[in-house]
UniProtKB/TrEMBL annotation:
Organism of provenance: Meleagris gallopavo
Spans annotated as Disordered: 636-666
Signal peptide: 1-18
Matching PANTHER family: KELCH-LIKE PROTEIN 26, LD33804P
Keywords: Kelch repeat, Repeat, Signal
InterPro entries in alphabetical order: BACK, BTB/POZ_dom, BTB_POZ_KLHL26, Kelch-typ_b-propeller, Kelch_1, SKP1/BTB/POZ_sf
Protein name stated in the entry: Kelch like family member 26
Length: 733
């Protein structure tokens, strides 16, 4: 008999030796070891630790887990140490309890929770298939699972039942990669059956993108009513026309005659008012259920009324008149070339689908060109009011013409003209009415105020401002309209704040702004009114105002916050931002100072316009937008807040689309751009753009319109505009 023993030898070091010895020799070795002198023991055992008592290392063998799994798989293959048999429909699986308990919460509870199966050698499983269990056991011994569309439902069902989370996650990954028009609905059914939220979100997103193709599949006809309604009522079906959705719904209803009783539940989510009149007549009313079912007949009547009574559409707003879109779009109207000797104005309309977009889409043109118009959004209709149809320095070109743009049908409607022609006035919406305040025309500056009633299609005078003013800004908060700054009689008029209460039809003065401003912007957010930008005149020079302040109506107090970064007076650039506290979409000049350099990778050119600068604003959901347009070039004019910096064009910035390029004027090797455009934010249903923006060529005007994005850091009063927030590049207009 041979025995292995480890003996420590040496005085100042330790060595482990392994000897093959007999029992008699073992006694002598043991006696020798335990009869060592104490001094020797102390030296041999503790000397190394005394020299470095803090040394402690942990080592790992990376391949140990693989070796362990291979060893367990080998034991299973050789039928060694197997201690339990699982049976399903007469199929037998011999396994190790400890392996199953280690990777399955179900088996851990079974074998360690005091259940009777813990003492059984043979356990019959129910609720899983033999095919699924085989894949689960193979995974337990190899950490690998082979999946295909034939076995995935069995494996996923077994993994969920046996609480094998890693296998469930692998099945989800496989199903996401296998998603197609043909498999989408089946995968969605599995996601619903096994309560896989992440997989269900992926299925829903895929279905929204490919709904029309999926509706042609046979599986679509077996879709449960609840799932069909879920898709039809969603605003995410943005690539589908309402008539196509109607045809898909009819196909589903006609598959089973018993479904006719549910016709109104399905068709109430089709937005009939947004269809063309010809589609309603030729395709919708010819379907018998639309006439036989009382509710469906009402949906059809609603659509006809909506289209034949355009001035009463505000009264007929319903879920069926809402555009299928969850994103607000930015739309620009008109404008004029950036030259002093070209008095023409543009009738072009461009749309930016969302704040992060990089492509503009050209929409239906206005009947006539316009610049310096005011815009307002009411019930997702855009009102384009006043302005001028030929470019003039003063108000002599002001007009009273008004239009309404319908993004639902992409149509224009000419509405009743204002009582007076106006330019550089304010247009705001309050209590379902559109208010036009102040401004100027060929008669001079105005104090009159008039409101438009969409139902009556009529403009009527209300209480006038206390002073004549133009170039002012306006915003609404709560039940009141606020007007600030603008040109009046004195400098104090440029700081004045007027408040209009429609309940008593009166104006009153409130606490004036801290900074005098004209041609600036006001926007409301979180029950505050922000005053941004603008200009201040001083003798024969003008200055950009970079200061930002907000007004709280409850306290009648203005608070100054961080100023805008040294902004130059460029032509119509855009700035957009979105934050958790108050998202913002803001148009700002494209020219910026050196502190923007980190965002764009290079400093922007220094050329700027600093003459008469117009700022206008438009509320954008929980955001607001501001557009600034200069229309008198004065490169030597000073500005508040820093100096300009010249440099190359930022890389990756796109050029204007061809449609806009054709409207610009070629001069001295550079393209002039539009300015004094009007901007509004509305929901708009867009088809895929037909053009892509290209990299700006070297001869393009470096001051052409761009979009920039900035993320606002905080919501506290002193940090509403954080000084260290980054800027990001965006689209051209």
């Amino acid at each position: 008999m041979m025995v292995c023993v480890a003996v420590e030898l040496g005085i100042c070091f330790q060595t482990a030796l392994c000897y093959s010895i007999s029992p008699s020799m073992l006694c002598r070795y043991t006696t020798y070891c335990f009869n060592l002198k104490p001094a020797c023991l102390s030296c041999s055992v503790f000397s190394m630790a005394d020299k470095n008592s803090t040394l402690k290392c942990t080592f790992s063998a990376p391949g140990h887990s693989t070796t362990l799994l291979q060893g367990l798989a080998s034991l299973r293959a050789q039928a060694q140490l197997l201690d339990v048999i699982l049976t399903i429909n007469n199929e037998v699986f011999q396994v190790h309890k400890v392996v199953l308990a280690a990777c399955s919460d179900y088996f851990r509870a079974m074998f360690t929770g005091g259940m009777r199966e813990a003492s059984q050698d043979v356990i019959e499983l129910k609720g899983v298939s033999a095919k699924g269990l085989k894949h689960i056991i193979d995974f337990a011994y190899s950490a690998e699972v082979t999946l295909d569309l034939d076995c995935i439902q069995d494996v996923l069902g077994a993994a969920v039942f046996l609480q094998m989370v890693p296998v469930v996650e692998l099945c989800e990954e496989f199903l996401k990669s296998a998603m197609s028009v043909e498999t989408c609905l089946n995968i969605g059914q599995m996601a619903t059956t096994f309560s896989l939220a992440s997989l269900k979100e992926s299925v829903d997103a895929f279905t929204f993108r490919h709904f029309l193709q999926i509706s042609e599949e046979e599986d679509f006809l077996h879709l449960p009513l609840e799932r069909l309604v879920f898709f039809l009522q969603s605003n995410k079906l943005q690539s589908c026309s309402e008539i196509d959705l109607f045809r898909a719904a009819v196909r589903w209803l006609q598959y089973d005659p018993t479904r006719r009783a549910s016709a109104s539940q399905v068709l109430c989510h089709i937005r009939f008012p947004l269809m063309k009149s010809s589609e309603l007549v030729d395709n919708v009313q010819t379907f018998d259920i639309m006439v036989e079912d009382v509710l469906c007949r009402q949906y059809l009547l609603e659509a006809f009324n909506y289209q034949i009574l355009p001035f009463r559409q505000h009264e007929m707003q319903s879920p069926r008149t809402t555009i299928r879109s969850d994103v607000l779009s930015l739309i620009t109207f008109g404008g004029t070339p950036y030259t002093d000797n070209d008095r023409t104005v543009s009738c072009k309309v461009f749309c930016l689908p969302d704040a992060g977009g990089r492509q503009f889409k050209e929409l239906t043109e206005m009947e006539v060109g316009s610049s310096h118009s005011c815009v307002a959004v009411l019930d997702n209709f855009v009102y384009i009011v006043g302005g001028q149809h030929l470019q003039y320095r003063s108000g002599e070109g002001a007009v009273d013409i008004c239009y309404r743009y319908d993004p639902h049908l992409n149509q224009w409607l000419r509405i009743q003209a204002m009582q007076e022609s106006r330019i550089q006035f304010q247009l705001n919406v309050l209590h379902g009415m559109v208010y036009a305040t102040g401004g100027r025309n060929r008669s001079g500056s105005l104090a009159s105020v008039e409101k438009y009633c969409p139902k009556d299609n009529e403009w009527t005078y209300v209480c006038s401002l206390k002073r004549r003013t133009w170039g002012h800004a306006g915003a609404t908060v709560g039940d009141k309209l606020y007007i600030s700054g603008g040109y009046g009689i004195s400098v104090e008029d440029k700081k004045a704040l007027h408040c209009y209460d429609p309940a008593v039809d009166q104006w009153e003065f409130k606490t004036p702004m801290n900074e005098p401003r004209v041609l600036h912007a006001m926007v409301s957010a979180n029950n505050r009114i922000y005053a941004l930008g603008g200009r201040m005149d001083h003798v024969d020079r003008c200055f950009d105002v970079l200061a930002v302040e907000y007004y709280v109506p409850e306290t009648d107090q203005w608070t100054t916050v961080s100023p805008m970064r040294a902004v130059t007076a460029a032509e119509n650039p855009i700035f957009a931002t979105r934050t958790e506290s108050w998202p913002v979409l803001w148009w700002v000049p494209a020219k910026c100072e050196s502190d923007w350099k980190q965002c764009h990778g290079s400093a922007l050119p220094a050329q700027r316009s600093s003459g008469r600068n117009l700022w206008s604003s438009s509320r954008l959901f929980d955001s607001f937008s501001v557009i600034r347009a200069g229309h008198e070039q004065n490169n030597s004019a000073p500005r508040f807040g820093g100096s300009s910096l010249s440099g190359p064009e930022p890389a990756g910035i796109a050029a204007p689309p061809p449609a806009l390029r054709g409207q610009t004027r070629q001069a001295s090797g550079q393209l002039s751009v539009r300015h004094c455009v009007s901007v509004a934010s509305v929901r708009h249903e867009l088809e895929k753009d037909k053009f892509r923006l290209c990299l700006a060529p070297e001869h393009d005007d470096p001051s052409s319109t761009r979009i920039f994005f900035r993320r606002i850091a905080g919501h506290a009063a002193e940090k509403s505009f954080a000084a260290d927030c980054p800027w990001n590049g965006g689209s051209h207009l």
